[in-house]
Design brief:
The chain contains 1 helix and 4 strands; from the N terminus they run αββββ. By secondary structure, it is α+β, with helices and mostly antiparallel strands. It has one domain. A 4-stranded mixed β-sheet has the order 1-4-2-3, with no helix packed on it. The longest helix is centred in the N-terminal third of the chain and has 8 residues. The protein is flat and about 40 Å long. The model has no long low-confidence stretch (mean pLDDT 91).
Length: 79
């Protein structure tokens, strides 16, 4: 049996958060390397699409003049 206290969100909690945003708002996730992580509370940022970037840089980059997206940012651990 898994310990639910190790997860930041349940599906139900995430659904409630997502209801606060427009249904057509794009969603991006942070990531790099292998495995999976919890994520922080979703928030809006502006990005520009740069598909020519190397995979480890991601195809979207922060840009104050870019498109608003909802970010699911992985939790950063320093261990």
């Amino acid at each position: 049996m898994s310990d639910n206290n190790i997860y930041n969100f349940t599906v139900g909690e995430l659904i409630e958060i997502l209801r606060e945003y427009p249904e057509d708002m794009p969603v991006v996730v942070s990531g790099y390397e292998s495995g999976y992580e919890n994520f922080y509370h979703p928030f809006v940022i502006k990005v520009t699409h740069l598909p020519e970037n190397m995979y480890y840089d991601g195809e979207f980059q922060p840009d104050d003049n870019g498109t608003e997206v909802l970010l699911l940012e992985r939790e950063m651990r320093n261990d």
